[in-house]
Q: What sequence folds into this?
DNA sequence: ATGGCGACGTAACGTCGA
């Protein structure tokens, strides 16, 4: 019997508001016999003490959290029954956890990494990432974004050497190519698509990471984020800025990569859709 | 069409996201 896991990422834009949808999505995926074994969340917008451990544990998931009030905040959620040993202990489930980029002092909670051992699979190194937005190329926030990207690249080089089976999942706030933008002519040089950001994305690829989504045939105009304004979703005026990057060792094991637009259609949705990659043993 | 939506904090709007 072939063993596989589904790993996913979702920028929920406030877990306080979106918890019911996270639970619904996890439940529907499981019911459809496509359970999510690991879910990396971004933009929790809550401190650690507000995290809904109880509700998610009751649904069968264990949680590692790097929270922050108001902005940012990331988590890794794993399905207990998919683990190699059905632990209920966070310390033994999430091995070698890392919060933030080592050596890069930052108040903003944007990186959470841990190694997880699923039943039937070699250990997986999961990195839940919320890249800075950048606001606009002439802003201080953009300079922060570029500095952060360099720090990430330098850290991941080491992390990949130590953990060959690595997945980087989350909201990259970069549309890697013009086909990831609904109207590229309107976006030339702007935040999310600028030459500097795309060069930084390419440097991550050059470390030995692959954009799992582009390993498979996809329908044109596939996006992961749509502006709440201007009826962005209804017009499919979106961007593909959420990604699952896989190391070479995982790339060969990946059997599917997709964006699930369904939750974006629900009442009071996040502006991002969840993304999924399937990894075979 | 440069604001439009939505969440947050603090208490009727400003700030931020992308």
A:
């Amino acid at each position: 019997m072939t063993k596989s896991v589904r790993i996913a990422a979702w920028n929920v834009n406030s877990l306080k508001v979106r918890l019911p949808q996270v639970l619904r999505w996890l439940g529907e995926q499981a019911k459809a016999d496509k359970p999510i074994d690991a879910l990396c969340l971004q933009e929790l917008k809550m401190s650690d003490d507000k995290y809904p451990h109880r509700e998610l544990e009751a649904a069968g998931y264990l949680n590692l959290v790097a929270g922050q009030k108001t902005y940012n905040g990331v988590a890794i959620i794993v399905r207990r029954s998919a683990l190699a040993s059905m632990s209920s202990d966070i310390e033994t489930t999430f091995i070698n956890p890392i919060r933030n980029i080592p050596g890069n002092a930052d108040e903003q909670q944007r990186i959470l990494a841990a190694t997880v051992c699923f039943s039937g699979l070699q250990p997986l190194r999961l990195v839940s990432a919320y890249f800075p937005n950048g606001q606009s190329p002439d802003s201080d926030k953009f300079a922060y974004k570029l500095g952060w990207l360099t720090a990430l690249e330098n850290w991941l080089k080491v992390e990949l050497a130590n953990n060959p089976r690595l997945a980087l999942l989350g909201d990259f706030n970069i549309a890697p190519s013009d086909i990831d933008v609904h109207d590229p002519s309107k976006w030339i040089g702007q935040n999310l698509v600028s030459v500097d950001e795309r060069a930084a994305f390419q440097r991550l690829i050059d470390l030995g990471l692959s954009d799992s989504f582009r390993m498979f045939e996809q329908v044109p105009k596939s996006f992961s984020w749509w502006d709440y304004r201007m009826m962005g979703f209804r017009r499919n005026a979106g961007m593909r800025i959420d990604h699952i990057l896989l190391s070479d060792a995982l790339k060969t094991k990946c059997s599917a990569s997709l964006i699930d637009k369904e939750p974006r259609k629900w009442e009071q949705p996040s502006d991002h859709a969840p993304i999924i990659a399937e990894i075979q043993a």
